Amino acid sequence: SCADESKACAGVFVMWEVVQRTLNGSQFYTYSICNVEEREQDNWLRTTFIQRHPLASRVFVELKFIVRDCNSFDGASLICKETFNLYTSESDADVGTTFRKSQFKKVATIAPDEITGKNEMHINTETRVVDGLSRKGFYLAFQDIGACIALLSVRVFYKTCPGTVQNLATFPETVAGAENQPLTEVSGVCVDNAASEELPRIYCTEEGKWAVQVGQCQCKPGYEEVKDTCQECRPGSFKAEASSDACEPCPANTDTLEHGAVLCACKDGFFRAPTDPSTGPCSGPPSAPRDLSAVPQPSVGRLILSWTPPEDTGGRNDITYSVECQRCDGVVCHPCGERVRYEPASMKLTEARVSVSELEAHLNYTFIVEAHSGVSQLAGERGLYESTYYFIYFFLYPLNPPQITTMRLVGRTSTSLALSWDVSPRPRPQLNIRYKLTYHKKDDNLDKTTYTVLTLDKNSAQIKDLAPGTAYLFRVQALVSLVSCRCVRLTLFSLPGNPSQNYTVLLVAAVLVAMMLIVVSAVLFFRRRKRNSHTRQGPEDTYFSTPEQLKPLKTYVDPHTYEDPNVAVLKFATEIHPSHITKQKVIGAGEFGEVYRGILKAPGRKEVAVAIKTLKPGYTEKQRQDFLSEASIMGQFSHQNIIRLEGVVTKFKHAMIVTEYMENGALDRYLRDHDGEISSFQLVGMLRGIAAGMKYLSDMSYVHRDLAARNILVNNNMECKVSDFGLSRVLEDDPEGTYTTSGGKIPIRWTAPEAIAYRKFTSASDVWSFGIVMWEVMAFGERPYWDMSNHEVMKAINEAFRLPAPMDCPSAVYQLMLQCWLQDRAKRPRFGDIVSLLDKLLRSPESLKTIADFDPRVSIRLPSTSGSDGSPFRSVSEWLESIKMSQYSENFTCAGIVTMEQVLQMKTEDIKNIGVRLPGHLKRIAYSILGLKDQTSTLSVFAV
Ligand code: AMP
């Protein structure tokens, strides 16, 4: 016992004994005391000096102990205790065995949860906290105040939060629970190759647990998180920003071979537009627009160009198009200038379509359509941009021209190239196709370019003497004798630098051709501007001032109203000096004399091809006046579809009328010569031109009276112009003119019934004639009512019969003919209506696909089994002659088809095989055979 605290108590340990015990079969030592029978117990047991961790201000003391139940002692229970006390004392040094009770502070009274009785033993474990420690070390002491205790173990410890890596931040081991501070804030450090905007922090709880991290570390660009570390992105992947994301595979058309890539570079030939994200895919320039086509809208003077978007957009969706117009004269092209208008625009088009207006007829236009995207410029800057140029040659009514579809390099040395090309559709033999091959060095300045031109019969060529290492631009054009086809393909081939190098061919562009159609009046306005510097026309005489004002302001003046017809001529026609006229060749015979082709070269003006009508010698003054009256009439007109008067020679002995030259001559002959070769669309386009000319005449109150295909002239561009305006022409000039009972000569087949009956010639009777012209055109110059007599024709008309639809005639066109042939002239359409309707049909070519019912027996007027005299055909040639197909006689003979029986066995395929290729001819012969087989049919009725 050592209760006196004034002196050191040496006996303090005496009462606590070290006792060896056996528990559950194992032996261990305890500090025990059991003075339960004596009062006033105060027995102390103190530990040795315990060094304190400098950061551990709070320590835990875990005690294992046994306390005997006081009731298990007989008689001692009254003073017996069942608790003991825990004390502590801080010190900066070990004080050895010196013990002063007063220096100790009580920490807790320790009571057992279970007390130990006589027969069983209960070990209790209690933990107490000793807080607020600050000195270098401390002692613990246990005070017994009269209990029976065995202290099995004392464990003194403090708690830490273990060193850790959390969210890519490293935090050190941290002692938990500072004074009055249940949470200890700990700063961390980002792992290698990770960074954080905010210092990473975490809290260590009293219990030694980490909680609530602040400030996130993320792997730097080029690194991704792998198990608490940041690893480099593998080749082929990248990471652009510090983030917790993984590395991504390189986007389309990019790659990287490096580890730890921050970005992927564009592969060769691919680019990023300035606005493209650096992390996005790269894209290539778009390929060329495809299938460029052009549709004329003649009524509004427009051409609609449309195309299919590039096959390869280069992976972009910002494709725009630009359209450039060039006028090509031979091989040299110039910009079309500002006059050509584009709707909506010529650049930055987002739709694959543009409307081009203010174009002129007769000129070759080239439209270059390029596709662009955000990377075109970059690609171009590096010389990689491939642009495709589409060439369209714009002209009037071409016949389905062959196109050059591909151009190939088939052989090459350092100084020569062998090329070949394909044509589609395969040209018919009679087209006599040739090719014009033009080439020049690609890099030559346009002004200085030397072109070499070769004309070839076959679709291949070997070009020699080229400069090594040079790129040449080749252009091949299909020349077709029948039409002035413009079929061009441009291709660039380069030559190897030296013979040993094996270059691949760099190819720029290609393409094509489209045939273009435009109806003449669409360009009326431009022609009018160019022309009409006629001296006879003062400003007040100008018929048009804007395209909208198409209506003439003047009416036609009958030259007869002039007392002196010579005055009329001089008012309406320009006098030409005969020395300015060169006659070249007789091209026809007019009523008054020969018609020549020639040249007019007026001072200060360009040479023009002209037709020169002459007045044969020995004429009377009356004849001279009649002759010149045509010029007086023609001179009053100015329209695209009316033959233009260049001038007259009146002041010299040989009077002449000089008009524009129409290369293809009279329409009826032209159609017969091209039977089956012209599409319905083109035929309707021609009719539209004639109708426009007639509308002009009717607006001027001029009645033609002799409108027929033979009086329509056709020029090189298949433009049709109304001609033949003499005052006496119907009477004298027209071989079709027939004297009628009402007097005068009338071309019966072309003339409206009221004009035949009582000479009621009006624009409505011209409309009837126009209907006949329509029929002539759609039947390729067939004679109206064939070989019926005039009398039969008049009878049929009076009995309400009308011509049947020609073969392959669009239904809408035939319906219009029938309208023109209405008995009641007031009900016939006017020329204005006709022009509008034809325009409508041309605008939607689909509308021409429905074909009018056709009866071969009546339309071709084939006698059923017999010749014209009613007897059967005696020979194949007689039959062919009757259907105007004599040109194939030889084909039949060569094929051994010499009897009509053999003819009757022929199928369409057989007809083709013997060399009848033109669809129109093929049909005609096939239909004829059909008719021959039909024994019962006769040709007596036309449909109404
Ligand atoms: P005409 O008697 O005035 O109709 O002329 C007779 C023939 O000459 C016509 O059938 C045409 O073949 C030809 N002809 C007349 N005028 C022209 C012209 N401007 N251009 C070409 N050929 C013409």
TrEMBL record:
Compartment list: Cell membrane
Ranges where the SAM domain occurs: 871-935
Gene3D superfamilies: ephrin a2 ectodomain, Galactose-binding domain-like, Immunoglobulins, Phosphorylase Kinase, domain 1, Transcription Factor, Ets-1, Transferase(Phosphotransferase) domain 1, Tumor Necrosis Factor Receptor, subunit A, domain 2
Keyword annotations from UniProtKB, A to Z: Angiogenesis, ATP-binding, Cell adhesion, Cell membrane, Disulfide bond, Glycoprotein, Kinase, Membrane, Nucleotide-binding, Phosphoprotein, Receptor, Repeat, Signal, Transferase, Transmembrane, Transmembrane helix, Tyrosine-protein kinase, Ubl conjugation
Superkingdom of source: Eukaryota
Catalytic class of the enzyme: transferase
Family annotation (SMART domains): EPH_lbd, Ephrin_rec_like, FN3, SAM, TyrKc
All copies of domain Fibronectin type-III, residue ranges: 288-399, 401-498
CC per GO annotation: dendrite; plasma membrane
The reaction(s) this protein catalyses: L-tyrosyl-[protein] + ATP = O-phospho-L-tyrosyl-[protein] + ADP + H(+)
SUPFAM superfamilies membership: Fibronectin type III (SSF49265), Galactose-binding domain-like (SSF49785), Growth factor receptor domain (SSF57184), Protein kinase-like (PK-like) (SSF56112), SAM/Pointed domain (SSF47769)
Active site: 706 (proton acceptor)
Transmembrane spans: 503-526
InterPro entries in alphabetical order: Eph_TM, Ephrin_rcpt_lig-bd_dom, Ephrin_rcpt_TKs, FN3_dom, FN3_sf, Galactose-bd-like_sf, Growth_fac_rcpt_cys_sf, Ig-like_fold
Descriptive protein name: receptor protein-tyrosine kinase
Source species: Oreochromis niloticus
Name of the encoding gene: epha2b
